[in-house]
Amino acid sequence: MNNMINKQLEREPNRRVYYITIFAILLAFLIWSVTGVQFNGIDSRGSTIAGNIITGILSPDLEFLFEFSDEGVPYLLFETICIAFLGTIFGSVLAIPVAFLMSQSIVGPVLSFITRTLLVVIRTIPSFVYGLMFIRVTGPGAYAGVLTMSITSIGMVSKLYLDTIEEIDDGILEAMEAAGCNTFEKIRYGVIPQLFTNFLSTTIYRFDMNLRDATVLGLVGAGGIGAPLIFAMNSYRWSEVGSILIGLIILILVIEFISSKSREKLANG
Hints:
By secondary structure, the protein is an all-alpha fold. The chain is 81% helix and 0% strand.
């Protein structure tokens, strides 16, 4: 038995050189990256500001946290959710035809290549830049945030939709065609049931991401709770900062829990 194992090990290629080469390349990139970053340490006021932030979280402005006017934390969180939700819905709907146009088996290689190239361009531009662009077009506010979320959602969602489309079981469609089903019936009973669950799971996952992005977009004036957060920090109103952060933490935890449970239920049928 030992001789057989030794002979098997001798026949296997020696990958030591391969692993050493990969390690050397990664180490070289690590050293190169470190040399490209300037480490200035912590600012003299950094520890004080960090302490103020922690103090603000521990002693938040409760009146601001529970104020139900259009300037309170609940309303700002609601606006952030609305921006993320509408952006996700619009982006997900627009991503469906884009995903089909990306599939070579459906539209051919030429149109698929053009669509994929356009999608790469869309995905290359950060959401922060889209936010600044739409603010110049529509003015600051939630509308610019919704447009930004819609465009940025198309890039990722259509790519995941495409993976689902490519995995469609053609045998089901062939069986339905043999049974005399028309095109509408094949789409209704053969295509949609195979796509719906994964499409919905992808949409929920994207909403989870958009909720975090919507907070960041508020920093450039695209609506949501980000703008009041940066204003409070610039004005050193740390109790208000603490109230906003507490609201965000609770919101993200709740949405994360609901999102995980929903996608888990969809995955398990």
